[in-house]
């Protein structure tokens, strides 16, 4: 980890981009809780969260393509305030506002949220050309990201949210603008050039990054992982409310993040796997199996313990996935490729949250949590498409399309 932080500019990249992502661990849950408080149903909360996730998933590849073609600064500086405004409006709406208005505002907030995480991956290809050190950079990013995701549920949901859920939403909106604008002002970000093509290659057409079959497979696998995350974000508060301990929601999801963060620390000390696709399939299978076990937890203590174990699969899987994606993305499409995986994750989260909310209201919270096992399907996809996932060519240095000019 220290070797990564010694790279000139790396610490500033991490601090600013991760501050912009502080709301990631809390915003979906806050939208569920806020909507549940003003409407009385988790189904409505699931619908609002689904609108946010779907809009984010649809818009981010477009924003990523614009950033690849024309540079990232305008995307960061123009879009972040629009997302913030929609979140603040959501928080300030009165109780009698129709649910569809909340759905529209959530969609606007998601549609204009900049793909700062994807842009950070592009920056790593410039700052850290060595593949082994870049693997450690992804793992270091995972450690710090999990700390941020841990801070979100505990500090924002359990802390600010316990005083005022609307106040917590307003804080999230402010963090999006402050973090993204600060990231955009970094020299390494400002010098990222737009690069529609590289080395005389033909343009990638309307499909863009999706012309790479491995990126399509990655997006589908991420969708199965997203279903798991969405089911947890809705199923855990519903399960704890059913147990009479909804106040433990932030703490429980924070423990989920601790499991992932501690696993990321271990990964940051290890070298890149020799057989990354095989390692990824095993990790994704474990992700699904351990999250499916959450449905069996009958007490808050058992649920928290199960969340810790399930969380330990998250960072290792995503770290290996990041390294594989570096090889799969076509030249000049890395930001867009990463956003397509984010789209898969967000669409999965939206579907998982909506279905889990319906199941929690119609049957039981355990039925919603059982959706967590869906990630096992993602492991099957990786096994079936292993030849495609191994087909990328490892980059020898910074991609021509992603270099500074």
Structure description:
This protein is an all-alpha fold and 405 residues long. The protein has a single domain, classed as Growth Hormone, Chain: A, CATH 1.20.1250. The chain has helices spanning 2-5, 10-20, 24-39, 42-70, 73-92, 99-111, 116-127, 131-163, 165-184, 187-190, 213-242, 249-268, 276-292, 300-311, 314-328, 334-362, 365-369, 375-384, 386-389. Helix 12 packs parallel to helix 14 (300-311). Residues 198-203 and 393-405 have low confidence and may be disordered.
Write the layout of secondary structure elements.
Layout: H1 2-5, H2 10-20, H3 24-39, H4 42-70, H5 73-92, H6 99-111, H7 116-127, H8 131-163, H9 165-184, H10 187-190, H11 213-242, H12 249-268, H13 276-292, H14 300-311, H15 314-328, H16 334-362, H17 365-369, H18 375-384, H19 386-389
Helix pairs in contact: 2-7, 2-9, 3-4, 3-8, 3-9, 4-6, 4-16, 5-6, 5-9, 7-16, 8-9, 8-12, 8-15, 11-16, 11-18, 12-14, 12-15, 13-14, 13-15, 13-18
Strand content: under 5%
State the end-to-end CA separation: 28 Å
Low-confidence runs:
198-203, 393-405
Determine the fraction of residues in helical runs and give it as a percent range.
over 70%
User: How many distinct beta strands?
Assistant: 0
- By CATH, the superfamily comes out as MFS general substrate transporter like domains
The structural class is mainly alpha
The CATH topology annotation reads as: Growth Hormone, Chain: A
What count of domains describes the coordinates? 1
